[in-house]
Specification:
mainly alpha, 241 residues
Length: 241
């Protein structure tokens, strides 16, 4: 990945994970829980969502060790007991972040097309618009990766909050005990069983392939990211949020 790609990735990734966390808090608020609101977390201000270890130190440490980039934002605090309907409320709040990332994917795709349309119509601005289009392209990758990665049913990812309500009561209670381990379960899977992660991220790659086929004609010279981005699996930007 080039330095330019990294420079474009960082703000896109930061905004995407902040929007994901905000969506959890907003959904919880609408389900009757004011915890995130009372603690000032119902905001898009990134400073409220950055965790010094998860967001900064952990990804740097893992990259330095040669592992896959991995990290996340500070989880938005919620109290499911305050939801008007505990089970449905918990599922809605858990899926809100994923739905937000998929919506951002759509917006980035539309942005890619619009910028390409303008760039082809106004040739003198192609260079500047290509940078913006590349950011949209990276945003498409980032948000599909975040959405489907968070669907993996392993604590503490959002998919686990859905699975725990689908299990029989006894199995569900045992499954909930994994939450005390924090991010350890998903980190072990990412490091030791990358094939499992790749399998869950297959829909992300398929969705990106479909999108590229539909909007590729609007690409400006340099507007799509480098070959490393085009060929890299979405797991290269795994985040636990």
């Amino acid at each position: 990945m080039s330095f330019e790609d990294i420079a474009l990735l960082v703000p896109v990734l930061l905004f995407s994970i902040v929007a994901h966390e905000y969506a959890h808090g907003e959904a919880a608020y609408r389900q009757g829980d004011t915890t995130a609101y009372m603690l000032g977390r119902l905001t898009l201000n990134p400073l409220k969502h950055i965790d010094p270890f998860l967001t900064i130190l952990l990804p740097i440490m893992l990259i330095a060790m040669g592992g896959p980039p991995f990290g996340g934002a500070k989880p938005v605090p919620v109290n499911p007991r305050n939801y008007r309907h505990y089970v449905s409320g918990d599922i809605i709040v858990s899926l809100a972040g994923i739905a937000t990332n998929l919506a951002l994917f759509v917006l980035c795709t539309l942005g890619f097309v619009f910028i390409g349309f303008v760039g082809h119509a106004v040739g003198g601005m192609t260079g500047s618009l290509a940078v913006l289009q590349r950011m949209m392209y990276i945003g498409m990758w980032v948000n599909t990766g975040l959405a489907f990665f968070n669907l993996i049913p392993i604590p503490p990812l959002d998919g686990s909050h859905v699975l725990k309500h689908m299990l029989p009561p006894t199995a569900g209670m045992r499954y909930r005990q994994l939450y005390v381990l924090g991010i350890i379960p998903i980190m072990l899977v990412v490091w030791l069983l990358p094939g499992v992660v790749d399998a869950f991220l297959w829909p992300a790659r398929a969705l990106m392939s479909l999108a590229q086929g539909l909007v590729g004609g609007f690409a400006l010279p340099g507007g799509a990211s480098s070959s490393s981005w085009r060929n890299s699996p979405a797991r290269s930007i795994c985040c636990c949020i």
